[in-house]
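Complex 521.
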Amino acid sequence: MWRIRRTLRMMSQGVPSPLVYRAYRHGERIAIVDPRGTYSYKDLLDSSSLVASKLLENGEDLSESRIAFSIPPGFPWAAVQWGVWRAGGVAVPLPLNAPSRELEYLVDDCGASTLIYDVHTTPIMASIAKARGIHALSCDQLFSSRSAESRKMQKEITADRRAMILYTSGTTSLPKGVVTTHANIAAQIGSLVEAWEWSSDDRVLLCLPLHHVHGIVNVVACALWTGASCFMLPRFDATAVWQCIADGAVNLLMAVPTVYAKLIAVWEAASRERQAQLSLACTKLRLMVSGSAALPVSTLQRWKEISGHTLLERYGMTEIGMALSNPLHGERVPGTVGRPLPGVEVRLMGESGTPVAAGQAGEIEVRGPGVFLEYWGKANVTSAAFRDGWFHTGDTAIVENGLYRILGRTSIDILKTGGHKVSALEIEEALREHPAIAECAVVGIPDEEWGERVAAALVLKSRDSLDLSSLRNWARNSLATHKLPSRLVVLDALPRNAVGKVIKSSLVPLFQNAGANDSVP
Ligand code: AMP
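Predicted structure with adenosine monophosphate bound:
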């Protein structure tokens, strides 16, 4: 914790680009490896200086103008993010492959003054910029331009200035722009660096998208803060991830549960000899982390058999960075997300607005220097999200033996059926034990009699079949009667977003057509 305080104290004194200046001490160390090459911290400083010069033109400070960019993971992405910071702008990383309407919404919502794109995203970004008369720059222009002379960045960017806007996934409402300051990001990084003992010898693999807090903060920012190396894949590819592990290129892996599920599938399809090689290579890593969605215990167990690692599960969100984590050293209890991280205060609150009694479920509230500043342009939504400086996460949890267990999003995963409150995540965990079920998601369907009915969307293992009454009979051993699904639909795949979260709002309509699925009265 003292390290976080010291960092924040230094930053409040005002240094040129606080999230960047530490790189001067890492000089020729390798910062980023991507399919195009290997880049040192000096390269990153030089290229980001070029980007900043180009963005500033003859000005001194972007004064928090929003610079939106759509660039695949790789060195240019990081150089642009740092360039925006060094020029005093707010970095707005956009999702790749998003439909044009979604990108237009994000660009308009943040009021971007400049759009930056690379060859992969040129057509869509160029046309969005043109339609709005926004300044547009390609990576080629930024990095190869001779006219943009790199100047030494002396500008003082104090830590309380806005640094980044990340958009929430918007599965229940329109995406909101989560604004973090340089100090917020530094605090989020400092907490993880301390808890997971990051060092400059670390080599982390990035296989996550770079428009989401997980890849941006937990992987890239933590690595670049500590002088570690980040191996960036332009997109997730399970075989490429395995190859990186097999080559001994990395010693840290951070991913979401669906990534681990896909890695398991590739391992299972490999020859015995290859399986043995891959499993041996895993033992060389020092840490493997899972988060951003509940980690099925079955995935944790299978991954342990394959890799020898008990995945470290953590909990966080865009607005707060990471809040809860299993320990780096010591027992990691499956199904739990451990305890508060350094510098993060967490409490569970009841509906009456007071802390819940021990052992009772409540809403997670978080306070600390890593908690975001505001939702962009939404002052009322921001103030409604805070109570006395505590941020309401909208997630429900319970503490068991001092360890937090996430029960799910209060609005989606906490079902009210027949007067009982039940956790969709708990039911999903139980259903996944069924030998025919590959994946499942539980939602509540509005019902006049029950309030909500428990409805399960299943993906079955190949060639298996399952009907509702046999599922209910089987599940009686592990679930109380009111938790048994009374509606069932079998799908080829669950709808998921870019970080593998199930988009539950799009499941609900599937149950509304009574003829389309299995149900009991
Ligand atoms: P995002 O802001 O996209 O990172 O989403 C944050 C949300 O993901 C949280 O509010 C939780 O609902 C969920 N989440 C994150 N980590 C976990 C976890 N380990 N277990 C269950 N849910 C999680």
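DSSP finds 17 helices and 27 strands in the chain.
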